[in-house]
Amino acid sequence: MISPKSKKQWYPSQTLDTIPMPSVKSLTKIKYEPGKRGVRRVAVLNKIFMKYITDIMSTGTVAMNIVGKGIEISKVRVTPDFLTVNVFWVCKGDSTDEETESLLNSVAGALRHELSTLRVMGEVPYIVFVKDRQEAQVADLQRRLAKADYGEDYTPTEMGHLLKTEFTLDTKLSPEMKAKISQLEDDLPISEDPIPEMTHNVYGLDHASILSRLLAARRKSKDAWSSLKAECPVISYRAPLSKESEVDTGKQKQELAEFLLKRQILQNKLRKQKRDSREWVETNEQNADDVNDEYQEFEDEYYEDYDDPYYVDEIQFPKNGKPNSSD
């Protein structure tokens, strides 16, 4: 018979020996891996943060005590989760690195505030200053090589100090020998090599002939203009360049006074002519009004006599009874 109890499934139990060891990839795996657009955005943000961070630190906006310290920023890297900005700075490998690190960590907050005012992104990540290990290792290697080559007491000098303008002689000379050498140097005639003539045929072109032709054409044009001005003088509003304008204030004042006097006389004449013409017009208008009045009176008298019937009869039949004959 079949047992009513359900069969229990067996699962293999994992012991400590069977648990797989974690790999390097699993330990270093990033929780957030950006895609193609995210990688491009991170690259752009790296360049933008590099530019703004170096500008702000060089101008001393966040802190004046970091100016002149010789701090060099090698690169800037934004983490894929956009939570931190790692600013890598070059360390010198001496005792000043600790002081520089503490100084940079103290200005990280102010630097983040300045970046937030520039609206680089919505929320600026936290700023973390990190030593550039690669540059530090290179500096340490250079220091060790210099110590091995030149010893522990070696102090490096600038490259400009190694250049010498004159030859030096390490052997000590007697004063008599120095006097003889100086006398020989004075007696030696100074001969200067003649300077070679500069050639004008670069790339197969005779520049001297071309320049001479241009100068001849320019001289010819200038002579033509000068002869034209001499034959036909024209009023020119441009002051000559060779002669400086000499201003005589007394003469100018006298000419101005004469001009104002002539103008006043002309205005008086015009005013007098205008007044005379106005008087003449008024007299003519008055005479015309008198003539019109006389003509109107004559016309009125004539029409009054013409309307009188007795006046007409007297004209046609006078007292002698004979009508007037009109010639």
Would you give an account of this structure?
It contains 9 helices and 3 strands, in the order ααββααβααααα. It has 327 residues and is mainly alpha-helical. Among the domains are: 30-150, 2-Layer Sandwich (GMP Synthetase, Chain A, domain 3), CATH 3.30.300; 261-327. Strands 1-2-3 form a 3-stranded mixed beta sheet. The longest helix has 59 residues, at 249-307. It starts with 23 loop residues before the first helix and ends in an 11-residue tail after the last helix. 5% of the residues are buried.
In short:
This is (apollo) hypothetical protein. The chain has helices at 24-27, 36-59, 96-106, 108-117, 133-150, 175-187, 207-231, 249-307, 309-316, and strands at residues 73-78, 84-89, 126-131.
Highlighted features:
mainly alpha; 3-stranded mixed sheet; GMP Synthetase, Chain A, domain 3; 53% helix; 327 residues; 6% strand; (apollo) hypothetical protein; RbfA; RBFA_mitochondrial; flat
Strands, helices and their partners?
Elements: H1 24-27, H2 36-59, E1 73-78, E2 84-89, H3 96-106, H4 108-117, E3 126-131, H5 133-150, H6 175-187, H7 207-231, H8 249-307, H9 309-316
Parallel strand pairs: 2-3
Antiparallel strand pairs: 1-2
Amino- and carboxy-terminal Cα gap: 184 Å
- Going by helix content, strand content and strand pairing, the class is mainly alpha
Give the rounded overall mean pLDDT. 76
CATH class of the domain at 30-150: Alpha Beta
Work out the radius of gyration.
58 Å
Query: What fold name goes in the CATH topology slot of the domain at 30-150?
Result: GMP Synthetase, Chain A, domain 3
Bin the strand percentage: 5-15%
Sheet having the most strands: 3 strands, mixed
Number of H/I helices: 9
CATH superfamily label of the domain at 30-150: K homology (KH) domain
Instruction: Kindly state the percentage of residues in helix.
Output: 40-55%
Biased composition (Acidic residues): 287-299
Region (Disordered): 274-299
Protein name: (apollo) hypothetical protein
InterPro entries: RbfA, RBFA_mitochondrial
